[in-house]
Structure formats: C-alpha cells, structure tokens
Amino acid sequence: MKIKNIDLGKSKIAKISILLYLLSTSIIQADDLDYFGKKINIRILDKVSSKNKLLKLNIGKNFTYKNLEIKVLKCKNSKFDDNPEITTYLQVKDKKNSNNDEVFVFNGWTFSSSPSIQVFDHPVYDLWILKCY
Fold first, then answer.
1. Kind plus residue range of the DSSP H or E element containing 62
2. Cα–Cα distance, 120 to 6 (Å, whole number)
3. Which one, of 48, 44, 46, lies nearest residue 70 by Cα?
4. Is the pTM of this model over 0.85?
5. How far apart are CA 126 and CA 106, in angstroms?
6. What are the CA-CA distances from residue 44 to residues 19, 41, 70, 112, 123 (Å)?
7. Cα dist. 83→34, 78, 79, 80, 112 in Å?
8. Which stretches within the chain are classed as H helix?
9. How does pLDDT run across 7-28, given as a tens digit for each residue?
C-alpha cells in the first residue's frame, strides 16, 4: 500500500512540474511578443528641401517615399522603462540607382538612441526611428 501511494505522489509531482514548466515558457514567450511591434513610425528628412515627414509603416511591407523604397523587417522595444530603446531591422533601396535590384542603400539594424552605430548614409535623406508599436 505504501508503494502505491509513493508512486501516485511521484506521478502527481511529475505532472505538476511539467504543467508549471509549460506555463512558465508560455508566459515568457507571450512577454517577448509584447515587445515586437507590427507598425513603426519613422521621420524622414529631405536634406535638399529641409522638409521632414512622419512615415507610419507596417512591418514587412514595402513603402515608397519619393525615390526610396523602405522595408522594415523587424522592430523591437526594449524591456526597460527609463529610456526605451527601439531596435529595427531596415532595408532601403534607392530607385534612382542604376543597379537598384541588386544593392540596398542600407540593409541592417538601427538603434533609436544611437543612430551613429549603424548609419543610414544617403546624400539626400536622413531617417530616424521614433516608435515601434
């Protein structure tokens, strides 16, 4: 009789442990999903005319602004509350470039608090990441 009770207790502990593990991993995954955005706000400056415009883009969709084709593949907010960091993976093509199907003007990660780390270097336009939501 003692052996049956011990086996029953072990199986209950195993089931509870598995349930707690699955619950904790699903909470962590849901928590991480809150930080990835589906839309992004980017401010673009035309250096020639000194005019800027706020662009509201959907993640994963191509957007054309004048002769630039902009595509944001990912954006992520930091988990810190003090000064949120927005990290964005961005691809930009210049349609006036003769080999525009092969080369991106910019293809990489950008950081809202440190735009100089990965510089979008274009003779006519500047980009700033404002918001990921």
1. strand 62-65
2. 65
3. 44
4. no
5. 11
6. 49, 10, 11, 13, 13
7. 17, 9, 10, 7, 10
8. 2-33
9. 555 667 767 767 656 655 544 4
